[in-house]
Design a protein that fits this description.
Blueprint lengths: L1 H33 L13 H12 L3 E2 L11 H12 L15 H15 L9 E4 L1 H11 L7 E6 L4 H8 L3 E6 L1 E2 L6 E2 L3 E2 L2 H7 L4 E7 L11 H13 L3 E5 L25 E6 H4 L8 E4 L2 H12 L7 H16 L7 H22 L3 E4 L5 E5 L17 H13 L1 E2 L18 E5 L4 H17 L2
Parallel strand pairs: 1-14, 3-4, 3-8, 6-12, 8-9, 9-10
Antiparallel strand pairs: 2-11, 5-7, 10-11, 12-13, 13-15
Helix pairs in contact: 3-11, 4-11, 5-6, 5-10, 12-14
The structure holds pyridoxal-5'-phosphate.
Family: Belongs to the class-I pyridoxal-phosphate-dependent aminotransferase family.
Cofactor: pyridoxal 5'-phosphate
GO molecular function: cysteine-S-conjugate beta-lyase activity; kynurenine-oxoglutarate transaminase activity; pyridoxal phosphate binding
Length: about 450
């Protein structure tokens, strides 16, 4: 018995050591190359969101003006309807719904957008409901961009565009918005495209141009003339326009949001993207959509049905009911589509003023809920030498958060590698925050400035 135990024990140990050496061999070869990130994702650059959310958890800033979401409740009717749906009589609202969009939601999206684009949107064939605007962008890009296709991207840009283009095998071609002048108080209309530079980017390989209006992070609302220039080039070179309009309801007087799909000749070549998260201040709900002619939409549907397939039913139902509620008071000043911008105008003005008074030079946005502010006048007040980051705006935003308790985002994250220097003098502040938190920000900035005198 003892002998058998001994033989069995020896055999087991040698089996274990063979296994371990096999695992070692395997891991040394897989770690090297087999399991590495596919090259279509480039070097797998760090995500600013992952890094700065971690920073917020580590440093617990007193005021987080980094990521773009409200720190106060969404409209009551919106959250109430989700609660009612979850426990309501219709238990089927907790099961799968139509893959390309819950019927009640696509019907309502058609009712909202048809009058805005001056054509009757077919709810079943011209609208796709997606997992946030993010997935609408992904399905649009993966559904159209082929290996070697070029995509024109306007910088600064929402950082996922670049990854999505590369993961489709496409080649991003960047053009930066640049300020016309750098002195004094500016608005986002000061940031413009050089028309000749834009023209020079169109080649016979150009498949798509990505537009973002109102713009993140600058808050620029593209004018009719600027959109016409883009439209003329898209038509001339037979190029698709992917128009990211998630901030469509956050446009400040006297600016007007123009949907590029409404320009002559553009409907046939435009995919427009929207977000329930931005529309109803529920960014965690992650429901978005795209609308476009049926032949373009079919390409998005193929990507969607093979990756997400169908989005969360109760949340889609709640977004549908939220639209119905707002459509019922469309002409009232209480309609959230107009009251949100009104409420945000005061916050924008308050944050712009406090930034100016505390040594920043803010670009006052015409839309969206971010302010990009030049911090270079503060450079003698802050020692960045202890921050190991490569880019000055990363150094500044980290050191500034540690010294003041106010967290912001470094805009160089919104530029391609060769153009990152264009964002280095700035920090991005989000102003869809409680008034008391904006007031706390003001107090912290004043105290910090006083200490540095
Ligand atoms: C320009 C832009 N596009 C798309 C998105 C993604 O929207 P969603 O949260 O609906 O996926 C965001 C979110 O911040 C954004 O700023």
């Amino acid at each position: 018995m003892i002998r058998w135990r001994h033989i069995y024990g020896t055999a087991l140990r040698s089996y274990q050591s063979i296994c371990e050496s096999n695992v070692k061999q395997l891991s040394s070869c897989t770690m090297g190359d087999k399991f590495k990130l596919p090259s279509r994702y480039g070097a797998g650059e760090k995500s600013v969101w992952v890094e700065y959310i971690q920073l917020a958890m580590d440093y617990k800033p007193a005021v987080n003006l980094g990521q773009g979401f409200p720190d106060y409740p969404p409209p009551e009717h919106v959250t109430k309807s989700l609660a009612e749906i979850a426990v309501g009589d219709n238990c089927l609202l907790n099961q799968y719904t139509r893959g390309f969009g819950h019927p009640r939601l696509v019907q309502n999206l058609s009712k909202v957008y048809s009058p805005l684009i001056n054509r009757q949107l077919d709810p079943l064939n011209e609208i796709l409901v997606t997992s946030g605007a993010y997935e609408a962008l992904f399905s649009s890009i993966l559904g159209h961009v082929d290996v070697g296709d070029e995509v024109i991207v306007i910088e600064p840009f929402f950082d996922c565009y670049d990854f999505m283009i590369k993961s489709a095998g496409g080649v991003p071609k960047f053009i930066a918005l640049k300020p016309k002048c750098l002195e004094g108080v500016q608005t986002s209309s000061n940031w413009v495209l050089d028309e000749n530079e834009l023209k020079s980017l169109f080649t016979n390989k150009t498949k798509m141009l990505i537009l973002n209006t109102p713009h993140n992070p600058l808050g620029k609302v593209f004018t009719a003339q600027e959109l016409q220039t883009i439209a003329d080039l898209c038509i001339k070179h037979d190029v698709l326009c992917l128009s990211d309009e998630v901030y469509e309801w956050m446009v400040y007087e006297p600016n007007k949001h123009i949907r590029i799909a409404t320009l002559p000749g553009m409907w046939d070549r435009t995919i427009t993207v929207g977000s329930a998260g931005k529309t109803f201040s529920v960014t965690g709900w992650k429901i978005g959509w795209a609308y476009a002619p049926a032949d373009l939409m079919r390409n998005l549907q193929v990507v969607h049905q093979n990756c997400v397939y169908t989005c969360c039913t109760p949340v889609q139902e709640a977004v549908a009911r939220a639209f119905e509620y707002e459509l019922g008071r469309r002409d009232s000043p209480d309609c959230f589509f107009v009251s949100l911008a009104r409420e945000l105008t005061a916050k924008r003005d308050y944050l712009s003023k406090m930034l100016q008074e505390n040594g920043f030079n803010p670009t006052v946005p015409e839309g969206g809920y971010f302010i990009v502010a030049d911090w270079t006048k503060l450079k003698d007040k802050i020692d960045l030498s202890s921050e190991p980051d490569q880019y000055r705006d990363y150094k500044f935003t980290k050191k500034f958060a540690k010294e003041t308790g106010v967290l912001t985002i470094p805009p160089s994250a919104f530029y391609s590698q060769p153009h990152k220097h264009l964002g280095e003098d700035f920090a991005r502040f989000c102003f869809i925050k409680k008034d008391e938190n904006l007031a706390l920000c003001e107090k912290l900035l004043k105290e910090w400035n006083a200490k540095k005198k």
